[in-house]
């Protein structure tokens, strides 16, 4: 294991993120605060509490997930896409590092940043609404697993993308709709049966549901199934990466 | 974990510093390229079976026109491109199977000026050392930056540097992990005289430390200036690999053109010993000579001209270009 290399990549990435800190932390905090003001306070006051949880509190886990997923996919992809784009990737490819070490460095940094932002949003939310965390350990587990999985997913996109448009498609056009339709702002019980069934095809539903369960012990699906789904998605990403690294897909010609 | 105290920064290993030509016990080549082929994804055959042994401590210049396959060859040795067939050993290790051993021996200065625009010089050079798995060594980085006249710029972002300075940064990055083999892919493209001089200084110093240096270039003068051996690549094949002196003797022709003050009808018999040709208008004489003749033949020609009463108003010399050498090589093969 080339620990020194992993450390170098990790801290290099964290430093790059620090330079864009304002943009990457302030903007989700402002967006989340707006959600709370609009959904939580203005509209939420007219929405009855869901299974005994006020609407503002109910949407908090979903909002954290929305930002976590977007951030992890975006950071995980830009981290590897950028050196590919500028050409500086030659250095990592010619260094005595295995692809798994490169992966740990980049994905570790992307997941760390996602987690930091997630926790900042949680802190912001606690200013607006009551937050109760019934299963802190499970809450952290869901958070960490999701951060890692989606940073890996981001890395895959970063390797795959040939231009900035492709790079942005997933974090901009795929993640938000899935999150909105994944029960972030409602319990899927509120939907007609057909749409309930469709919702179960949405992977984000399982994340949001499990994560919310760790807060309020209310869930759209069994939290064990949520964990299994994250595990499945994690395994999918890892095997995809395994194939990519073996074939040198879009990294080594 | 603290960093180890800095002792002495000397890339390479001193016992390797002996020149391959004076060394009694033959050492295995530091790099051995065997039957190497590369076909890119689009079906293009960039390397067609290259065999090449590079000795420890030598400076090898790879000459070749655009698209010859120089960068492809280097990229395979460095691990950036996967070989299609054949194999490459560096320090006796296979570049694919034992990539950790081989890559930690190698420093690469790429042809393209690729830099992290928003990083500082210091950080980007320190990063390079880190990804090569070496513990931080600020004193060494300082020494390298000073040597490349980059010390004053160490806190500048790379986008604030000129092209030549960026090239220096790329050299500093490659040296930051104390490689035993250094690849310089067209190091002098877009580089001014002073950087060229600095660069050759660094190359000489590295060579004294026993570092093996492989550089690619389009300019034969450059190979002539610095290399021990010269390889010529064209169309993915190594056309020739020779010690520089032999190469220049064989192919390096020079021409001297004299613009005469008065029309000359024919070359006087007293000058018959020199290979001279007269232009049609009789106003210029061209002298062809080989590389190693240059010292004495010019002087004796000039005095013979004076003795024959031939005066000239201008003089120019021209060296055979790489293209001429290719023509010569291709003709020889045909
Ligand atoms: N990734 C690639 N995919 C397809 N073809 C490639 C690729 N990289 C290089 N080639 C082709 O392989 C050939 C050799 O390219 P290479 O870059 O090795 O040449 P070179 O000798 O370094 O040339 P130059 O002096 O211009 O740098 C060229 O014809 C080039 O078009
Ligand atoms: Mg090239």
TrEMBL record, chain A:
Domain ABC transmembrane type-2: 19-248
Protein keywords: Cell membrane, Membrane, Transmembrane, Transmembrane helix, Transport
Pfam families according to UniProt: ABC2_membrane
Membrane topology classification: Multi-pass membrane protein
Main location: membrane
Cellular component terms per the entry's GO annotation: ATP-binding cassette (ABC) transporter complex
Superkingdom, taxonomy of origin: Bacteria
InterPro entries linked: ABC-2_transport_permease, ABC2_TM, ABC2_TM_bact-type, ABC_2_transport
Gene Ontology MF terms in the entry: ABC-type transporter activity
Subcellular localization, as worded in the UniProt entry: Cell inner membrane; Membrane
Bilayer-crossing regions: 21-43, 63-82, 140-161, 167-188, 224-245
NCBIfam families: PRK15066.1
Family according to the record: Belongs to the ABC-2 integral membrane protein family.
PANTHER family found in the cross-reference section: INNER MEMBRANE TRANSPORT PERMEASE YADH-RELATED, TRANSPORT PERMEASE PROTEIN
Protein name: Transport permease protein
């Amino acid at each position: 294991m080339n620990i020194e290399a992993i450390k170098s990549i990790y801290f290099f990435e964290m430093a790059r993120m620090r330079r864009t800190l304002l943009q990457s932390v302030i903007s989700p905090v402002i967006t989340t605060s707006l959600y709370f003001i609009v959904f939580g306070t203005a509209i939420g006051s007219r929405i009855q509490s869901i299974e005994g949880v006020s609407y503002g509190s109910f949407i908090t886990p979903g909002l954290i997930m929305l930002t976590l997923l977007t951030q992890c996919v975006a950071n995980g992809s830009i981290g590897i896409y950028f050196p590919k784009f500028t050409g500086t990737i030659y250095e990592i490819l010619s260094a005595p590092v295995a692809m798994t070490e490169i992966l740990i460095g980049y994905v570790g940094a992307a997941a760390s940043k996602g987690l930091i932002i997630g926790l900042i949003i949680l802190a912001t939310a606690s200013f607006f609404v009551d937050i109760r965390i019934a299963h802190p350990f499970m809450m952290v587990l869901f958070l960490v697993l999701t951060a890692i999985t989606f940073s890996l997913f981001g890395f895959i996109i970063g390797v795959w993308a040939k231009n900035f448009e492709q790079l942005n498609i997933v974090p901009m056009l795929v993640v938000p709709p899935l999150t909105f339709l994944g029960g972030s702002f409602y319990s899927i019980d509120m939907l007609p049966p057909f749409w309930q069934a469709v919702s179960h095809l949405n992977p984000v539903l399982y994340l949001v549901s499990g994560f919310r369960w760790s807060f309020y012990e209310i869930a759209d699906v069994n939290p064990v199934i949520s964990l299994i789904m994250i595990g499945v998605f994690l395994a999918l990403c890892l095997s995809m990466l395994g194939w990519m690294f073996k074939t040198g897909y879009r990294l080594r010609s | 974990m603290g960093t180890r105290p800095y002792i002495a920064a000397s890339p390479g290993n001193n016992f390797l510093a002996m020149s391959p030509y004076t060394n009694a016990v033959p050492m295995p080549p530091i790099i051995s390229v065997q039957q190497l082929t590369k076909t890119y994804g689009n079906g293009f055959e960039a390397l067609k079976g290259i065999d090449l042994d590079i000795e420890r401590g030598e400076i090898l210049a790879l000459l070749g026109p655009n698209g010859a396959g120089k960068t492809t060859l280097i990229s395979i040795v460095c691990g950036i491109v996967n070989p299609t067939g054949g194999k490459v050993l560096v320090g006796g290790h296979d570049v694919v199977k034992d990539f950790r051993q081989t890559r930690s021996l190698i420093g690469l200065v790429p042809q393209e000026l690729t830099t992290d625009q928003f990083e500082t010089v210091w950080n980007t050079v320190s990063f390079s050392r880190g990804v090569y798995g070496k513990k931080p060594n600020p004193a060494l980085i300082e020494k390298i930056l000073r040597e490349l006249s980059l010390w004053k710029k160490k806190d500048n972002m790379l986008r604030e540097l000129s092209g030549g300075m960026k090239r220096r940064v790329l050299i500093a990055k490659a040296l930051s992990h104390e490689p035993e083999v250094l690849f310089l892919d067209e190091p002098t493209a877009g580089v001014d005289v002073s950087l060229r001089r600095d660069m050759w200084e660094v190359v000489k110093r590295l060579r004294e430390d026993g570092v093996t240096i492989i550089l690619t270039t389009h300019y034969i003068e450059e190979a002539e200036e610095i290399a021990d051996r010269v390889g010529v690549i064209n169309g993915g094949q190594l056309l020739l690999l020779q010690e520089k002196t032999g190469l220049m003797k064989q192919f390096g022709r020079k021409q001297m053109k004299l613009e005469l003050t008065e029309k000359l009808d024919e070359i006087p018999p007293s000058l018959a010993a020199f290979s001279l040709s007269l232009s049609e208008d009789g106003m210029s004489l061209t002298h062809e000579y080989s590389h190693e003749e240059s010292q004495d033949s010019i002087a004796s020609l000039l005095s013979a001209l004076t003795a024959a009463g031939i005066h000239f108003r201008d003089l120019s010399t021209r060296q055979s270009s790489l293209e001429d050498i290719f023509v010569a090589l291709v003709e020889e093969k045909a």
